[in-house]
Automatic annotation (TrEMBL):
Residues 1-23, 797-822 are annotated as: Disordered. Residues 1-13 have a biased composition (Polar residues). Gene3D superfamilies: ABC transporter type 1, transmembrane domain (1.20.1560.10), P-loop containing nucleotide triphosphate hydrolases (3.40.50.300). The keyword Transmembrane applies. This is Uncharacterized protein. One of its GO terms (molecular function) is ABC-type oligopeptide transporter activity.
Length: 822
C-alpha cells in the first residue's frame, strides 16, 4: 500500500511501502501510517500571499482609473506611457506563474529530503530556484523602464496628458511589489533547506485516529467535508434546494438592473414603464417561488439529517461503558443530543445554503456592476476588503465573547438542574435560599459577560455601519459626479446603488455566518468524538454457554475506577460462590462491596486477575447473553416512566401471564391490582408515585421474570414500614430460592442464613466464613455487629450473649429490625 506523504494542503507525494519516515524515539505504539505536513506560515505561503495582494491591488487601481470611456480607450488605443493595462495583465500573469513555481519548488525540495541524491530532482530544483528569482526580476525591470518613460514624458514631452492618478499608483505598486518579491525569492534556497526542520509528522493508528508524539489520540476539528458527510443521505434534497436557490438568487441579482430600467423608462414613456414593471414583477414572483422551494428542501433535508444523527448518537451513547458515564455528566450528554445536533443541522444545511446564496449574490452583483460601470465598481472594490476584513476581525472577537457568555450560562444551567432534580433534598434542608444564591451568583457572572457582549456587539454594528454606509456614500458621490458630468444615466446609478446595498448586506450576513460555522465546528468536535468512540467492553461476539450453573470465582482481582486512577479500590480479591449458595458481602462503608457487584455485572473490567462464571472468564462471554443470566435488585431501584407491566418486562419479552406470575412471586400483584389501570398504570412523574416498598417489589418482579441464574442484591437500608418490609423480605426470600446469590447484606437475618460471609475492608477480604465462625474470630465482623448492637434496639442481655462468643448469640438477631447497617 502506498503511503501518502503530504507536503501541505495542496500537494501530496506517493511513497512506496517501506518508505515510512522514521518515527521519533518514544513509547512503542500502534502506528499504521504516517505522513508529513508543513506549517501554514512558511516561505511559499508568505510569497503567495504577497503576489496575490500585488495582483489584486494592480488590477483594482487600474479599474479605478477614470470613467468608462477612459477605461475603454486605454485598452483599445493602448499607449505605453498612457495606460497601465499591461501592468494589470503582467501582475495577474506574475501572480499565477509565481504561485505555480513556488508550489513546484516546494514539492521538489520535499521529495529531495527523502531522496537527496536524485539528480533529476536536483536539476529541477535548480531550475525552479532560478525561475522564482527571474520572474520578479523581469517584472521589476519592466516596471522601472515603464516608470522611467512615463516620468520622462511627464517632464519633457510637450503635449503629454498625465495619466489618472490611480494609474501612476498601479505602476509604483507594481515596481515596489516586484522588488519585494525578488528580495523574498533570493531566500528560496535557504527556506527550502529549512523544510526538514519545519515539517510536522502526522501518525495514525489502525482505526485511522491521529496520534500525538506520545501515542495518544488527537481530537481534531473536523473539516467541512467531514461535516458535510453527515448529510450524505440528503444529497438529492440538497441538490434540489441548490437548483431552486440558483433561481431565487438569479432573480435577486437581476432585480436591481430592472429597477434602474424602471427609473430610466419613467423618463421615456408610460408603455415602456408598464412593460418594465411587469417584467420586474415576474422576476420577483419567480424568485419568491424558487425561494419557497429552496427553503422547504433545505429545512426538510436538515430535519431528516438531525433526526438520523440523534438516533445514531443516542445509540452510541447508550452503548458506552459505565466508566464513560462516570466522567460525562448526563446534562452534558443530553445537551449534545439536543443542541449540538441542532447547531450541526443548521451548519450543514441552512448555513451552507446561505453561504452559497450570498456568495452567488456578491459575485453576480459584482459582474453586473462591472458591466454597468467598471470604474464605479473599481471604487467599490477598493473599499470592500477594508469593510470585510474589519467585519471578520471584529466578528471573531464578538464570537469569542458570545462563547464565553454561553459557557457561563451553561454553568448556571447545571446549577439549576442540580437543585431542581434534588428538590426534595433542597426542601428537606430548607436549602431554597442557598440554591437561589448559588444560581444567582452564576447568573450574575453570565450577566457580567453579557454586558461586555452587549458593548462588543453594539460597537461591532456601529463600526461596520460607519464603514459600510461610508462606502455607499462614497459610491453615491462618485456616481452622482458621473451623472452630473453626463457620463451615467440616473437609472444606471440607481441599479448600481441597489447592487452596492445588496453586496453590503450579503457581506454583513456572511460575516455572521462565520460565527455559526465556528459554533458548528465546536459542536461537531464533540459529536464526532462520540460517534467515533468505541466502548472498551464489547457487548457482542462472545461465547454463549449452553448451560449455566452459576459458579462464580474471583481470582486475585485488582481494580481502579478509570475516573479515579490514583486510588486502587480492590486490592487482590479472591473468593468463590458455588451454585445455589448465598454469599453475603459485609464491611465498612467505602470498602468496595458495590464495586465487586459492579464487576460481576461487567460494568467494568478488572485491571488484573480474573472473574469467571462456570470456569469461563466473563470477558470471553457474550455480554448481552451474560447480562440476561444475572439480575440485580438494588436498594433504591429505578423504574422507568412506562406502565408497571412494561417495567416488569423491561429485560425481556413476556406474556401478560408471565408478568402477573412474576408480580405474584414478588408480592406485588395485590397492590398493582388495586390501581384503577392495574398493570397498565403509568409510573413516574406523569403517573402514580410508588412507595419505596412497592418500587422494590416491582424491581424484584423485573428480576424474577428473566429467571436469572445469578441474583445480585443490595439490601434496602431505608426504613420501610413493618408491613412493607415484611412483604419485600418475603419476596426476596422467594427470589433467592434455587439461585446463586451475592448479597450486600444489611440485615442480620441475611448474614446468619448466608452460606458464606465475606468481610470487605479497604479493598481487601478482611475475613471470610459463616456467621458463627466469624463471631468466634473476634475480628472486624464482630466489631461491626457490636457497633450495630450499640446503636440498635437489642437489649443488654443479647449483647452479653454475643460477647460471650457463644453460637447461641445468633438467636438474638431474629429481631426483624436488627440489621447491620455499616
Ligand atoms: N463510579 C465510581 N468512580 C470512582 N470511584 C468510585 C465509584 N464508585 C465507587 N467509588 C469509590 O470506590 C470505593 C469503594 O466504593 P463502593 O461503593 O464499592 O463501597 P461500598 O463498600 O459498597 O460502600 P457502601 O457500603 O457505602 O455502599 C469508594 O472509595 C468510592 O468512593
Amino acid at each position: 500500500m502506498p503511503h501518502t506523504i503530504s507536503s501541505g494542503n495542496s500537494q501530496s507525494i506517493e511513497r512506496q511501502e517501506g518508505d515510512l519516515p522514521e518515527v521519533p524515539d518514544g513509547p512503542a505504539y500502534d502506528v499504521s501510517y504516517q505522513y508529513y505536513s508543513l506549517p501554514t506560515w512558511r516561505f511559499t505561503n508568505i510569497l503567495r500571499l504577497i503576489v496575490i495582494l500585488d495582483g489584486l491591488l494592480c488590477v483594482i487601481l487600474w479599474l479605478c482609473g477614470g470613467d468608462t470611456k477612459y477605461f475603454e480607450d486605454n485598452i483599445v488605443h493602448f499607449q505605453f506611457t498612457q495606460s497601465v493595462f499591461d501592468i494589470a495583465i503582467l501582475a495577474i500573469a506574475k501572480t499565477v506563474i509565481l504561485i505555480i513555481i513556488s508550489a513546484a519548488m516546494e514539492e521538489t525540495s520535499f521529495k529531495l529530503l527523502d531522496t537527496p541524491f536524485d539528480s533529476e530532482l536536483e536539476k529541477r530544483a535548480v531550475q525552479l530556484h532560478v525561475a522564482i528569482k527571474v520572474v520578479p526580476l523581469a517584472c521589476l525591470a519592466f516596471g522601472i523602464v515603464k516608470g522611467a518613460l512615463i516620468l520622462n514624458a511627464l517632464l519633457s514631452v510637450s503635449g503629454y496628458k498625465a495619466m489618472h492618478a490611480t494609474y501612476d499608483a498601479a505602476c509604483i505598486a507594481f515596481i515596489c511589489f516586484s522588488l519585494l518579491e525578488l528580495l523574498i525569492a533570493l531566500f528560496s534556497g535557504h527556506a527550502m533547506r529549512k523544510l526538514q526542520l519545519l515539517r510536522v509528522l502526522h501518525q495514525f493508528n489502525s482505526t485511522g485516529q491521529e496520534l500525538d508524539e506520545n501515542g495518544h489520540a488527537i481530537h481534531k476539528n473536523p473539516g467541512l467535508l467531514k461535516l458535510l458527510s453527515l448529510a450524505k443521505g440528503e444529497i438529492p434534497l440538497l441538490l434540489g434546494g441548490l437548483l431552486a436557490m440558483l433561481g431565487s438568487s438569479g432573480s435577486q441579482i437581476v432585480a436591481p438592473l430592472l429597477f434602474g430600467k424602471v427609473v430610466d423608462a419613467a423618463n421615456k414613456s408610460i408603455d415602456e414603464l408598464n412593460e418594465t414593471v411587469l417584467i420586474l414583477l415576474g422576476v420577483y414572483v419567480g424568485g419568491a417561488l424558487a425561494s419557497m422551494v429552496r427553503a422547504y428542501l433545505f429545512v426538510l433535508a436538515g430535519q431528516r439529517m438531525v433526526a438520523r444523527l440523534r438516533k445514531k448518537l443516542f445509540g452510541k451513547i447508550v452503548t458506552q461503558d459505565i466508566a464513560f458515564f462516570d466522567v460525562n455528566r448526563t446534562g452534558e450528554l443530553c445537551n449534545r443530543l439536543a443542541s449540538d445536533t441542532q447547531v450541526l443541522q443548521n451548519a450543514v444545511t441552512v448555513n451552507i445554503s446561505m453561504l452559497t446564496r450570498y456568495m452567488l449574490q456578491i459575485l453576480g452583483s459584482l459582474v453586473f456592476m462591472f458591466i454597468l460601470n467598471p470604474s464605479l465598481t473599481g471604487v467599490l472594490l477598493a473599499v470592500v476588503p477594508v469593510v470585510s476584513l474589519t467585519a471578520v476581525k471584529y466578528g471573531r472577537f464578538v464570537q469569542r465573547k458570545r462563547k464565553e457568555f454561553q459557557d457561563k450560562l451553561a454553568d448556571a444551567g447545571t446549577q439549576a438542574e442540580e437543585a431542581l432534580s434534588s428538590i426534595r433534598t433542597v426542601r428537606m434542608f430548607s436549602g431554597e435560599k442557598k440554591a437561589n444564591d448559588l444560581y444567582g451568583k452564576d447568573i450574575e457572572k453570565s450577566y457580567q459577560v453579557g454586558k461586555q457582549l452587549a458593548l462588543a456587539q453594539g460597537t461591532f454594528e456601529g463600526v461596520i455601519g460607519i464603514l459600510a454606509y461610508g462606502a455607499i456614500t462614497l459610491v453615491l458621490w462618485y456616481g452622482g459626479k458621473l451623472v452630473y458630468e453626463g457620463n451615467l444615466s440616473a437609472g444606471v446609478l440607481t441599479s448600481f446603488l441597489l447592487y452596492t446595498l445588496q453586496v453590503a448586506i450579503a457581506f454583513g450576513l456572511l460575516s455572521s455566518l462565520y460565527g455559526d460555522f465556528m459554533q458548528a465546528v465546536g459542536a461537531s468536535v464533540r459529536i464526532f468524538s462520540l460517534l467515533e468512540r468505541s466502548p472498551t467492553i464489547s457487548s457482542e461476539n462472545g461465547k454463549i454457554l449452553p448451560n449455566l450453573n452459576g459458579y462464580v470465582e474471583f481470582k486475585n482481582v485488582r481494580f481502579t475506577y478509570p475516573s479515579r486512577p490514583d486510588v486502587e479500590v480492590l486490592k487482590g480479591i479472591s473468593f468463590t460462590v458455588k451454585p445455589g449458595e448465598m454469599v453475603a458481602l459485609v464491611g465498612p462503608s467505602g470498602g468496595g462491596k458495590s464495586t465487586i457487584v459492579s464487576l460481576i455485572e461487567r460494568f467494568y473490567d478488572p485491571d488484573s486477575g480474573t472473574i469467571s462464571l462456570d470456569g469461563y472468564d466473563i470477558k470471553s462471554l457474550d455480554a448481552l447473553w451474560f447480562r440476561q443470566k444475572i439480575a440485580m435488585v438494588s436498594q433504591e431501584p429505578t423504574l422507568f416512566a412506562f406502565s408497571i407491566q412494561d417495567n416488569i418486562a423491561y429485560g425481556c419479552c413476556a406474556t401478560d401471564e408471565e408478568i402477573t406470575e412474576a408480580a405474584c412471586q414478588a408480592n406485588a400483584h395485590e397492590f398493582i391490582s388495586q390501581f384503577k389501570d392495574g398493570y397498565k398504570t403509568l409510573v413516574g412523574e406523569r403517573g402514580v408515585r410508588l412507595s419505596g416498598g412497592q418500587k422494590q417489589r416491582i424491581a424484584i418482579a423485573r428480576a424474577l421474570i428473566i429467571n436469572p441464574v445469578l441474583l445480585l442484591l443490595d439490601e434496602a437500608t431505608s426504613a420501610l414500614d413493618a408491613e412493607s418490609e415484611h412483604l419485600v423480605q418475603e419476596a426476596i426470600d422467594h427470589a433467592m430460592k434455587h439461585r446463586t446469590v451475592v448479597v450486600i447484606a444489611h440485615r442480620l437475618s441475611t448474614v446468619r442464613n448466608a452460606s458464606k460471609v465475606i468481610v470487605i475492608d479497604k479493598g481487601t477480604i478482611a475475613e471470610m466464613g459463616t456467621h458463627d465462625e466469624l463471631i468466634q474470630q473476634n475480628g472486624v465482623y464482630k466489631r461491626l455487629i457490636l457497633r450495630q448492637l450499640t446503636v440498635g434496639s437489642v437489649d443488654e442481655t443479647s449483647r452479653k450473649n454475643l460477647n460471650s462468643g457463644g453460637s447461641g448469640a445468633t438467636e438474638v438477631f431474629q429481631e426483624p429490625k436488627g440489621n447491620i447497617q455499616t
